[in-house]
Amino acid sequence: MSQISSSLSAAPAVRWWKPLLFLAVVVVGLWWVKWQPYYFKALLASETHTLGRSLLADQSPHPLQAAWQYAQTYFLAVWKAAVLGMILGSLVQVLIPRRWLVSRLGPGRVFGPLLAALLSLPGMMCTCCAAPVAAGMRKCNVSVGSALAFWLGNPLLNPATLVFMGFVLGWQFTAVRLFVGLVAVLGVAFAVRKWAPESTPQQLPDLPPDARPFLQRWAASLWTLFWQTVPVYLLAVVALGAAQVWLFPHTEGAVGDSLWWVVAMAVAGALFVIPTAAEIPIVQAMMQAGMGVAPGLALLITLPALSVPSLLMLRGVFPARILWLTLGLIILCGTLTGTLALMWI
């Protein structure tokens, strides 16, 4: 009898240390990669009203050279966040109780996408760095809508980016980005529900507990996640570095205030890949070169939201039709935003 009582008293200790460890990794990792650097970056933006040069500035017009230049610049900017995203995406699978995630973010949870969007706010990650975490959540049976809300919420609802945008582009741009971002994140999450039939929590099978040691399970999750996401991520970034020669015109005044350019920039932004908040100097530089406000607003929505690399990184955990639908809805949000700007400005 005493053995039974002692085992029961020890059980909670086995459960609670894992979420606490996960929370510690989140706080320390985000403080190092995001929170502290962004605090000083916000102070600099408030004084200079700029975030530096556009990542597209001074890029070679030759595709191969442009690919090499952009890959160097991009990975230098994101490697810390990319490593943190891989660590969190693997740890969520072994440290957070699966049933706890399903009970709050699983299929059938009406407010799951809203909770997931709120959980994305501290992350402040770009779409590619948030993708491994979203993949890890999906492997824990988090619903498609909730995982999409978390993934899209990281870049579109990023509080630091909104602050940077207010100081650099003006608070009117920030208000539009915040409103459309909320509509896009929650709209996509709820729209995909009828496109992705999922099992309810009661129908999910009871998986036998994994008896392997913690470090062994984490290593296995990290290795699997790495091979499913990183190689295609690297190749896609290099390919888009070459494609920027055609996606973004380098001639001053080439991008005007017309519906054609609104659609073109919405599509180009949805395909291209950038680090966190890089859309701000890109749009600032292109508008200074003559781009209209309407295509600029379209870029501010679609450029950070997703990209070809991040879509490819999630191909194994989301149905293809959901990824295509998400891409189409984000392009639609950017196009509608730019179109309304054409009508009102």
TrEMBL record:
The chain crosses the membrane at residues 16-33, 74-96, 116-136, 148-169, 175-192, 222-247, 259-278, 290-310, 322-344. The keyword Signal does not apply. One of its GO terms (cellular component) is plasma membrane. It is found in: Cell membrane. InterPro entries: DUF318 (IPR005524). Keywords: Cell membrane, Membrane, Transmembrane, Transmembrane helix. It comes from the Bacteria. It is a multi-pass membrane protein. The keyword Transmembrane helix applies. Belongs to the UPF0718 family. This is Permease. It comes from Mixta gaviniae.
